[in-house]
Design a protein that fits this description.
Pfam families: HTH_11, WCX, WYL. By secondary structure, the chain is α+β, with helices and mostly antiparallel strands. Helices cover 43% and strands 25% of the residues. It is built from 11 helices and 11 strands. The strands form 3 sheets. A 5-stranded antiparallel sheet has the order 6-5-4-3-7. Strands 9-10-8-11 form a 4-stranded antiparallel sheet, covered by helices on one side. Helix 4 packs antiparallel against helix 5. It is elongated.
């Protein structure tokens, strides 16, 4: 850092990365004395960058809250991390349009060499995870819910159910969860008086209120979301007894698919299925011995599957 301009830019980068730094700390990091730090701060202020200086024992320098720096100053490692995060977000289905726009902006402001390297990364990187075409919720709804949950403020949401019915609900949010390409919020729903899960892409509006609440210590938003997905109102409620240990069943069956309960006779699997033939295929694919509890029509579906398999393997 042999040039004042370079050191001044380095000071700006440090203030961008930290909430505030003392004069002595800044001087040590920049390799200058504290008087030079004061001069750099004054020069940055002259350039229109609001560097606030606070006197006293715990004083120092900081950028004014809300100020957005025109140049994007990233190290090579930071730029790579940003590009990787955006590429992974695109594959996961996170706000596709916003992700593409952010990638385009990043490309435009990167130095030429780093831009070419980031482009090579984008062209050659692939994922074992399949891409998802996700329904993206409104950014404002996500941010408003996040702030309300952090501050423990009740919100009023307008929600559209799976069958198109519109309702207005008061919600004490417990957490946001991103799962399989979709955003969910879980919490205490005052309309039903129960712990509920809602898809964010079906929320039309979120209005924070003044009422406050506490989140129970035992609250687990991820577990709540995955458990609620296993109870999506498909056509057929299913109960099957699996004759394996609970740990073995849990390794093969995620909580978003079915609820598993240990019993003296084995592991009781509870879920809902839209197709009993599909359910029979799933049970066969598990490779576990099982006993069908309900519905009776599932037994017929399993027999049809077995007959089809036998017909395809003649002696």
């Amino acid at each position: 850092m042999s040039y004042p301009a370079t050191r001044m830019l380095a000071m700006l980068e440090l203030l961008q990365a930290h909430h505030g730094l003392g004069g002595r700390d800044l001087a040590q990091r920049l390799g200058v004395d504290e008087r030079t730090v004061r001069r750099y701060a004054a020069r940055l202020a002259e350039l229109g960058i609001p560097v606030a200086a606070e006197r006293g024992r715990y004083g120092g320098y900081r950028l004014m809250p809300g100020y957005k720096l025109p140049p994007l100053m990233l190290t090579d490692d930071e730029a790579t991390a940003v590009v990787l995060g955006l590429l992974a977000g695109r594959r996961l289905g996170l706000a596709a349009a916003a992700t593409e726009a952010a990638l385009a902006k990043i490309r435009r402001v990167l130095p030429a060499t780093l831009r070419e390297q980031a482009g090579a990364l984008e062209e050659t990187l692939d994922f074992t995870l399949a891409g998802r075409a996700a329904q993206t919720p409104a950014s404002r709804a996500v941010l408003t819910l996040a702030a309300a949950i952090r501050d423990r403020r009740r919100v009023t949401v307008r929600y559209r159910s799976w069958n198109g019915a519109q309702t207005e609900r008061e919600l004490d949010g417990h957490g946001l969860v991103f799962h399989s390409g979709r955003w969910y919020v879980t919490g205490h729903d005052h309309r039903s008086g129960e712990l509920r899960t809602f898809r964010l892409d079906r929320i039309a509006s979120v209005v924070p209120g003044t009422a406050s609440y506490e989140i129970p210590e035992e609250s687990d938003p991820v577990r709540q979301v995955t458990a609620s997905l296993a109870q999506v109102p498909y056509a057929h409620p299913v109960e099957v007894l699996l004759h394996v240990p609970l740990a073995e069943a849990a390794r093969r069956i995620p909580p978003s698919v079915a609820a598993l309960t240990e019993t003296p006779d084995g592991v009781l699997l509870r879920m809902r299925a839209e197709s009993l033939d599909g359910m029979a295929t799933m049970l066969a694919g598990l490779g576990f011995p099982f006993t069908i509890v309900s519905p009776r029509d599932l037994r017929a579906a399993v027999r049809r599957l077995a007959e089809g398999l036998l017909a395809g393997t003649p002696e």
